[in-house]
Amino acid sequence: MDYGVKKVTIDDHPCVINFFDLSGNKDYKAIRTEFYTDSTGVLMVYDVDNRDSFSSLVHWEDEMKRYGVDMARIKVVVVGNKSDVKGREVNAKDALNWCRQRGYSHMETSANTGNNVSECLESLFKMCLDQHLEDKKRFGIK
Fold it and tell me: Up-side HSE of residue 81: CA atoms within 13 Å toward CB?
């Protein structure tokens, strides 16, 4: 697991983002599952050149549900990484349809070139902030 803190300003709101990069390796499951319960946002990443990584997103959904994630409230961005590679196995249209069926956002990135990486994170952060502000308003919290 990798952990980081990022201070950002979103729509004039200073925010401190705590983020965790959780290994998908089964050896780390016991550690990984401890971090699901209080999550407000998640990036589900697959490689566009690897159909199996896309197919396994269902497994990650199931694991999140089993370990306390309220799928009706959490903000999800599904990320097709390696958008710069040739030999694509996952069609962007198929991925977008899969996401729409679940109410998730979808973006494609390239960690290699940096294309769309910041935009992807900013999109998730904004969705989480919007949910937080909506909750505060709904419950009368200043």
Answer: 14
